[in-house]
Amino acid sequence: MFAGVFAENFLVQAAVRGEPGLRECALALVDGAPPLTKVVAVSEAAQRIGVAIGMPKATAAQFVGVEIRARSLALEKSAHAALLDLGWSISPRIEDTSADTMVVDVAGLGSIFGDEKAIAGELLERGRACGLRLNVTVAGNIGTALVAARGIAGACVIARGEEAARLSGLPVGVLELSLEMAETLERWGVRTCGALTELPVLELSERLGQDGVRLHALARGEAARAMAVAEPGHTFEEEMELDDAVEELEPLSFLLGRLLDQLCARLTARALAASVIRMRFELEPAFEKAIESKKEIVRAKNLPGVFERELQLPVPIRDAKMLLKLARLRLQANPPGAPTVKIRINAEAARTRVTQNGLFLPSFPDAQQLELTIARIANVVGETNVGVAELMDTHRADAFQMKKFSATTEERDKDSRLPAMEKRKQTAISCRVFRPALAATVELEEGRPVRICFSGLRGEVAVAAGPWKTSGEWWRENAWQQEEWDLELEFRAGRGQKEQGLYRVYYDWKCNGWFVRGVYD
Amino acid sequence: METAVATFWARTMGMKSAAALRLEVESALAGRVVAPFQFRERRLVETAPTGVAEVDALTGGLPRGGLTEIFGPVGAGKTSLLMAALAERTAAAEACALVDARDAFDPEAAGAAGVRLERLLWVRCREISQAMRATDLLIQGGGFGLIAVDLSDIAPRVLRHVPLNVWFRWRRAVEETQTILLVMEPEANAKTCASLVLRMEHESALWTSTAGNSRQTEARLLAGRGIRVERVRARRQEGTLMRRMDGGEMEEDGTSFEAKVVRLCGEEVNAETQRAQRKKRAGKE
Fold first, then answer.
1. Using alpha carbons only, how large is chain B's radius of gyration in Å?
2. What pLDDT does residue B265 have?
């Protein structure tokens, strides 16, 4: 059995899917270069008030309450991809017939969804979740399924042997006639499939050729053909072109939310989730604003026309709200910097996480919540100031790099199986560092520090240990050569009392100066 | 609220049954008190070891679901104690977070102290407001075994201006969780919001030296330092037992002032760092 799936008035549906507020409006889509811009598609509400396809844009605009939008190929592409994802969500064998039509092989799905009617209902429901209103017909052959889907609204099942009877009342237009063929049949007074089947095949063949025979078979519901199976796509992309450029983050995040909703609906339909989200914003040139000074014009010329951001997710996520929060936080910290005219969101799909936490493992932050928390903190302290410190393979002091904090359950589970760490018998004394190191003035006697001044403090050196000489990377520009000392300093604290402190101090041969690296605490 | 209850009680005393009275009191306090007659039993305080045996013996460990405050001047050993606690928690496969108000954390020293850096979320702040906000977010996020807030380098006069409700909020936020909230400051500020308050002071440094012919040939090494840890406050329910993570149990002895001297080892610092780096290189090869 095959299900023919047809999205009626596809151009309007694609536009409405991108802007759900237009669903109940009288909508007219226009296309073509001015002044030849004409209406190419109209919603039912617009048809009722008199707007028709082919009408000039200016004429359509005179109707009260008509919303006019430019036809968007990007939205149509997204809607078509959503339609195919919908098919793959239910069966691995689908045929990508045209932009608004597909065929789904539903053989063997009975044990999952029930009878053919239930399968058709499931397809309708999933289509609604993706923002598409579909006609679905389940029939014994592809031709009948497609023809009936174009002519019968909603869900329909045509049993074997009933094809001709069920198709007889449908207009011949559902057979996808060429303009010339439609005129011919109109002249003959053939308006329904039933009227066409009553014509003798031989005579029809003499007058219309093989096309006539094919149409006759289609109208009888006997046009069986093989299915051209489409390969499942792995690209999940949604894009939106904006009529007016958007500069503020609030409306931008509203649009992002809409795109993410659509993307997540598609991912959910395929039982997948996003592991990486790439956002691409095409920016409006800023020349108009930067016309005041030459300097600004130069800056405007250097502005990139595209702003891209990437969200690397620790675990695959398909929660649109969560993704929107992360995207918003990322854009708050680093906004596009110019008005946006086009948004494109691309998701790298991955299977959803199915691991279960170990029973005896200590609690750990939820991966999704952790990502959100880190993004929020990054918004407060800066993206480079939150994460995990990774020590670098060098003897240079304070050499580390920040990495993203993520520890998966699998890693912890593996670690928990390792033998327990040997208990330390003694606690090591630790150091607090000053970033950047504090410049100091040091007095020496016999090559050893005896007095030191830094940050307004003047201390006498009670004990000095050192020097420990370190150097490295002499072949590079950022070579270092230092002599480190551990100093026990005594500071006067008033009333003849003294305060003590243990500091790590070094002499930098490159800068020819003394610095305080840190304090032992 | 107490006045309202007393007035209500006086008005209805002796006229209604206990059940009816209870119902009326509950309805009168509805929206203000969740369950006025329900006894809220305090849960057993669970603690986790600090990684320093002397401090564990003194305190019983760091209370989970509570605020621990460690205060003392610069050089008092707060950072060393923090490193020991972080090493202990990260070795137990717990996620830890450090809110570093002045970006003073030394990852090298932490690695040498045994901290598993890959399990430590380090938040490098530049001012106290960032640290406060980051702490709020981390507590809200949940799931961390230990959240340490290092305010040691913030001036005491600034910390005194932190509203008391911040400490109260933090205490309430971690109350029903397994999180240890550890705050390090130059002075104690959390008052009664802290479950455990430790004062730390340093003693003189210990040096080893080898005799030389002159000062120039004399070699010295920082052998360690003594620190004095004093338990200023330990708020627990009287008569209950403190359960330690190692399975042992200790009797509650009420709030008292006890102190222990811990000897921190200094020689190990450089040697441990070099050993850790050697291991890392060997692993890469």
1. 24
2. 62
Query: What pTM was computed for the model?
Result: 0.70
| In contact, A427 and B264? CB cutoff 8 Å | yes
pLDDT tens track for A28-53: 999 988 888 899 999 989 989 999 99
Q: Determine the Cα–Cα distance for residues B146 and A362; give it in Å rounded to an integer.
A: 12
Residue A282: count of CB within 10 angstroms of its CB: 18
Beta-carbon separation of A393 and B280 below 8 A: yes
Q: How many CB pairs under 8 A join A and B?
A: 212
- Taking alpha carbons only, the member of B261, B228, B268 closest to residue A426 is B268
Beta bridge partners of A138: A3, A157
Task: Name which of A366, A486, A501 is nearest B143 (Cβ-Cβ).
Answer: A366
* Lowest-pLDDT range of A112-121, A255-264, A390-399, B12-21: B12-21
Asked if A370 reaches chain B (Cβ–Cβ under 8 Å), the answer is: yes
Give the tens place of pLDDT for each residue, B247-277. 333 334 433 445 566 666 654 444 454 555 5
Does B121 contact A521 at a Cβ distance shorter than 8 Å? no
Instruction: State whether residue A19 is helix, strand or coil.
Output: coil
**ipTM of this complex > 0.85?**
no
φ and ψ of A420, to 5 deg: -60, 145
Contact call for residues A367 and A314 (beta carbons, < 8 A):
yes
Q: Minimal Cα distance from B83: which residue of A?
A: A430
DSSP A34: T
Q: SS3 letters for A259-290?
A: HHHHHHHHHHHCCEEEEEEEEEEEECCCCCHH
> Half-sphere exposure of A147 toward its Cβ, with a 13 Å CA cutoff?
34
A6-23: average pLDDT: 88
Q: Distance between CA atoms of B118 and A387, rounded to whole angstroms?
A: 9
- Residue numbers in B near A376 (CB within 8 A): 137
Amino acid in position A162? E
Q: Count Cβ neighbours within 10 Å for each residue of A314-341 and write b for 16 or more, e otherwise.
A: bbbbbebebbbbbbbbbbeeebbebbbb
Per the listing, tokens 């919303």 go with: A67
| Radius of gyration, alpha carbons of chain A | 35
Task: Pull the structure tokens for residue A491.
Answer: 């500071």
- B91-121 in b/e form (b: 16+ CB < 10 A) is bbbbbbbbbbbbbbbbbbbbbbbbbbbebbb
* Pairing status of strand A135-139 against strand A431-445: unpaired
CA distance A287 to B11: 78
Strands A386-391 and B120-124: antiparallel
- Across the beta sheet with A38-42, what order do the strands follow? A38-42, A26-31, A66-70
Flag whether residue A369 sits within 8 Å of chain B, measured between CB atoms: yes
pLDDT at B240: 36
* Whole-angstrom distance, CA of residue A185 vs CA of residue A215: 11
**Residues facing A279 on adjacent strands:** A309, A345
Residue B192 contacts residue B60 (beta carbons within 8 Å): no
